[in-house]
Amino acid sequence: MRFLFKTDYDQDIRLFRHGGQKFWYGLLMAALLAAPWVLPDYFLAQLSFICIYGLVGVGLMLLTGYTGQVSLGHAAFLAVGAYTEAVLAAKGVPFAVSLTAAAVLAGLAGIAIGLPALRLTGIYLAIATLAFGFIVQEVVTRWESVTQGNAGIAVSPVQLFGMPLEEEWQFYYLCLALLSAVLLGMLNLMRAPTGRALIAIRDSEVSARSQGIHLARYKTIAFALSAAITGMAGALYAHKILFISPEQFNIILSIELVMMIFIGGLGSFHGAIYGAVFIIALPQAISLGKDYLPGFIAHQTGLEPTLFGLILVLTLIFEPMGIYGRWLKIRLYFQMFPLYKKATFKRQKTYMKSERLR
Fold this sequence. Notes:
By secondary structure, the chain is an all-alpha fold. The chain contains 15 helices and four strands.
């Protein structure tokens, strides 16, 4: 078992706590960089989707997992980024400019929903973001002069510095680079005063206000950053599937995105990545496992959403900390064996006194 002896306050905010983390994260990055040499294009395409959904998960985790603001309309921000990228790419705008525009417009959309919803919490905030998702989908459908309505828009491959990224490995490296950069930025943000203010708001708005934290400002920042990151993911998503239409960004997608961070592990960027892997891997596992299931089950319609819902319910009941929480328990078990206690992670039925004032 590893013991960390801290001698200064800077050790509490280090990006890597010890050399072991540097080694394992470095090994993971080396494996991801080497993936195009050992994996076929199909698996590289799935890794690209994991990176795209991971970006969405990071943005949604910042808002829901770290700030405590529930959103059921994140598919709208994904649509804003995707359509912005599609329209600008069709006009020959460089990818760096169109990607930035997609993030900025999605961030402005986040501010547009964040400001009116400042006084809303819980289910009321979820309903407000859900309504915003319906509004964006309707606007995209009706604004045919720009979005071409239900006919959809065909999107060309990414043009980066005048070179088309037509090979699967090229686009995979682009997605991996953007995900790594955003993750690094968010990890540094959470070590900064802004990140600590967001966590304080999540834990108790009353206590945060008493400490001088401007709730409206930081909630708006969380909405804007979350939407901007999701807009970047939408731009990559458009180039990946090469065709977008309004029905792709419906309420079902928003619910899947929320399920992703809950199953992955709420309150950790690790959980966002685990959730993205789960969202992409489960449909593939279902398609492979149908050959081994009884016929009356394998040929049923709605098998995938049924399993998604069942897994979410079981996760909330038996493992509220998600996949990442289960990994933490397994790791701690082997670190402390044979002295591990079953009640180590037992949830306490207590709450902060400041919560009583709500």
